[in-house]
Amino acid sequence: EIVLTQSPATLSLSPGERATLSCRASQSVSSYLAWYQQKPGQAPRLLIYDASNRATGIPARFSGSGSGTDFTLTISSLEPEDFAVYYCQQRSNWPPEVTFGQGTRLEIK
Amino acid sequence: QVQLQESGPGLVKPSETLSLTCAVSGYSISSGYYWGWIRQPPGKGLEWIGSIYHSGSTYYNPSLKSRVTISVDTSKNQFSLKLSSVTAADTAVYYCARSAVVVPGDFDYWGQGTLVTVSS
Fold first, then answer.
1. Number of A:B CB contacts under 8 A?
2. For chain B, which ranges sit under pLDDT 70?
3. d(CA A7, CA B12)
4. Which pLDDT belongs to residue B112?
5. Mean pLDDT of all residues in chain A?
6. Which of B61, B62, B105 sits opposite A91 (nearest CB)?
7. Spatial separation of the C-alpha atoms in residues A99 and B12, rounded to whole Å
8. Interface with chain A: mutation pick from B5, B95, B106, highest number of A CBs within 10 Å
9. Is residue B92 a contact partner of residue B39, using CB atoms and an 8 Å limit?
10. A96-100 and A85-93: which strand pairing?
């Protein structure tokens, strides 16, 4: 099983600042890495797929990068609605398997 | 607009079988993509349970495989989850979701989630 480790566990920033979230895989996942945002009481929302592609309707301030084992989600300038929990997720093509990271909580400083 | 809606009992007794259904609207399951179940224990992270294709091909999380069955009913445009021999550790919000790609994962449409509590 591929394990995803996210860091930091909690990130405290102010609106307008830049956020950098990390996700490290225990073995290479190529570019099969996605990012989600989850707000309290809501289902997760897909932000990024295939490491760097923004999902439909996702603002340009969200960007993803990386390949292999190290990935980054960057929010260029935080908006008040961006404070939430963020999860990374990998998908293995064979055997098909999906795992999530433990999450990073982005909180208002 | 693709919409998913989970339904099923909110309370299940220990050792019994948890059964949930996900009704899909705005998209035909028979048209493709994988359809999955994901759960989230209260205050914790996300766990993939498994996914199914419209043909009935299934893939499960190895840690749950012995207890999980996912099935699809294309005539009703819905898919279902059964989890047997439940314990308190299976208490969670259960989500159904559609994969954005042609393999399990990268879920672009989600249901609102349904809380299932395992308790006597």
1. 68
2. none
3. 35
4. 98
5. 97
6. B105
7. 26
8. B106
9. yes
10. antiparallel
Tokens for B78, please give them: 């819905």
- In whole angstroms, give the CA distance from residue B3 to residue A59: 22
What tokens does B48 get?
A: 């993939």
Chain A positions in Cβ-Cβ contact with residue B110 (cut-off 8 Å): 43-45
* Mean pLDDT along residues A57-63: 98
pLDDT digits over A19-58, tens only? 999 999 999 999 999 999 999 999 999 999 999 999 999 9
Overall average pLDDT of the A63-92 stretch: 97
| Contact predicate B107/B39, CB 8 Å | no
- Min Cα separation B109/chain A (Å): 8
Asked whether residue A68 carries a pLDDT value surpassing 90, the answer given is yes
**A36: how many CB neighbours lie within 10 A of its CB?**
26
- For B21, the token pair is 């259904």
Q: Measured between beta carbons, which residues in chain A are less than 8 angstroms from residue B107?
A: 36, 44, 46
Other Cβ atoms within 10 Å of B103 Cβ, number: 19
Question: How far apart are the C-alpha atoms of B44 and B91, rounded to whole Å?
Answer: 11
Residue type, B91: T
Q: How far is it, in rounded angstroms, from Cα B90 to Cα B48?
A: 13
